[in-house]
Structures are given as structure tokens and as C-alpha cells.
Amino acid sequence: MKAVAVSKFKDIPVVMDLPKPAVRPGTVLVKVAAAGMNPFDWKMIDGIMDDGKTKHQFPLIMGVDGAGTVEEVGEGVTRFKAGDKIYGQFIHSPIGEGSYAEYAIVPEKSGITKAPTSLSAVEAAAVPTAGMTAQQLLDKLDLQEGNTLLINGATGGVGSFAVQLAAAQGLQVIATVSDEAGAERMKKLGAAITVNYKKAPLTEQVKEQFPGGLDGLIDLVSKTDGFEANLDLLKPGGTAFTTQFVAEENALKDRNIRGGNFETQGSAASLDTLTLAIDRGALTIPVENKIKLEDVPAAIVLSRQAKGKGKTVIVI
Questions:
Q1: How far apart are CA 29 and CA 70, in angstroms?
Q2: pTM (2 d.p.)
């Protein structure tokens, strides 16, 4: 089978011809139809999980998010049967049996579940990590209807889900954009206000419109200095989360702001909640780019440079 993999950490990913995996007890063999790309995927090949505790194997096949059809089930599997359409996070131990491949082995107990009936496999593959991250961020923020929320990095995968879910909760969403096309898309997804950070400093524009401060911040892109500057946009007692792991406890405490660094906890239950929202038509799936396995190395370069726009899905 064809798969995008590396032979060692920090290697350049390439398309390889690898053996089709054999099903093991407690796992399902998935014929992968599509894989969603996330920055974590290239951080993984950089060695982010090379901590001496997490097993991994080479060639290390990339990819966390995927969607496809169960081709075979291993001994003891009860949740799925051959022919089921599934989606979710394929990541498990050993690291290296990812979704950037024509076939993948996934433990039944990992973060996979039945795919939404209303979505294509390509759309489903865009959902898991980005959708669960957005959903869990909003749960942690615990804002009330009518509260103001700034989403910095709104036009990306997580941001696009967060804008929709926040608007559905009755929050006043301020979304950052870099051009008019992005502003139009964010408005369609439910943003009340868009701020083009290329026209003037973000903090300057937001303070002008909201001199009394905001209730919440989701920052998906800033480094330490940028995140701390954005904290000054919040009211005392506000809440701020970053997915970039740049929050410093004292910086929040000094401003009487709760929150901090955020990490997604993937689970089948969390996905099932998203599935319900999707199948009742409450979410638009933000697939911006469809590529092939052969295009993945170039797409990773763009992602590393933060030049990728919207959600990219690999059609397999």
C-alpha cells in the first residue's frame, strides 16, 4: 500500500510502498478514504512524542485524523463490523500506524466512532481533532449567552469550528482574518465582527471597538508575547486559552484571568456529540483544500511556515 512516512525522526516525509497491515486482536483494519491534516502531524515526526515512554515504529506513517470503511475486525472487537463507515483519531501506541495511508490499523477502544451519515468521507476526515478541540475549548471557557469572545486564528480548521459552535451558544464572536474573503467566510459561519490584523495591530483595533474589555479569548496562533498582549484585551475575571502552549501562569494571575494552555482529550464520546450536531445540520465542515498523498510533503512545508489556509484533507 502507499503511505506517507519517515524512516527516522526529523526526516523529510515521502510516499512509500509499505505492506498492508494485518489485523490484530482488539483492532479494526480500515480502508482509509481520507485523512485530515493537522500541525500536530508534523510535530509528531519532529519527535514531539519521543519521550522514552511512548512506543513508536519506523517507517513511521503520519496522520491522526481519518475516515474510511472497516474492512476487517480483529478478535474481541464488538463496536464495529466489516462495512461500517467510521471516522476519528487513529493515533495509538505504537506511534507510526497513522492515517496517511491506504489502510490503517486502529484499536477499537481508541477515539473512533461511526461517521456522520450526512457527510462524505472527505468532510468527516476534517472533523476529529479540529472539531473536538473547538468543542472542548468552548466547554472550558464556560461563557454565557451574550458574552464576547475573540478567536485569534479563526480562519483555520479549529477556528472555523469554534466560530460556529460559539455563535450557536449565543456568544458575540470576534474573528481575526487576513483578507476580505476570510472576513466573508467568517461572517457566514456566525462571526459578529471580523478584524483584519494586517490593517493595524490586533490589540489596537479590538480595544477601539471594545474599550470595556472582552469576556473570553481563544488564541490558536500567537507566540508568548502575542498571547500576553492579547490578555490585556480581557476584562478582569475573563478566560483565555492557547493551543500553542505559550501561556505563563503568572501572566494570567497578574491580570486576574483564568485559563492557560489547552490540550485536546480525544474520545469516541466527544466525537459522538459532534456527530449529533453535524447530522442535525448545525455545523458546516470547513474543507478548503483537497490533495493527494503525493502532495503531502509540500503541504507540510506550507503548514510549518503557517502559510496553509483553511482545513486540508488528503483524498486517498
A1: 6
A2: 0.91
